[in-house]
Specification:
108 residues, mainly alpha, 4 helices, elongated
């Protein structure tokens, strides 16, 4: 059961960080069906299967929330940094005529 909780937390955080749309309902249905099928194949009881699916769904939602919040806070922190802009070039070519005079020489 703890393995299901850890993996659903990781999957939820990946989904929360990757998708901007609400992807949880299809993920819960797909994951619940897979957990139910594997647990039934292993011969576990129906109460145990239901509890595992509920734990999977709850921890997946917590992971999704954590992943989404992490990405949003990182994006906000990045936006607040002073990033180089295209309006203010870092490399300035000052006095190109003076540079050409040095290359050509005084007699050229």
């Amino acid at each position: 059961m703890s393995t299901v909780a850890i993996f659903s937390l990781l999957i939820g955080s990946l989904l929360g960080g990757r998708f901007r749309i609400f992807i949880l309902p299809p993920a819960i249905v797909l994951g619940g069906a897979m957990i139910g099928a594997v647990s039934a194949w292993q011969g576990q009881g129906s109460a145990h299967i239901v509890v595992m699916i509920v734990v999977f769904a709850a921890v997946l939602q917590l992971g999704y929330l954590g992943g989404a919040l992490l990405i949003r806070t990182r994006a906000t922190a990045y936006r607040n940094e002073t990033a180089p802009s295209f309006r203010q070039p870092q490399l300035r070519l000052s006095a190109p005529r003076a540079a050409n005079r040095r290359l050509i020489g005084p007699h050229g």
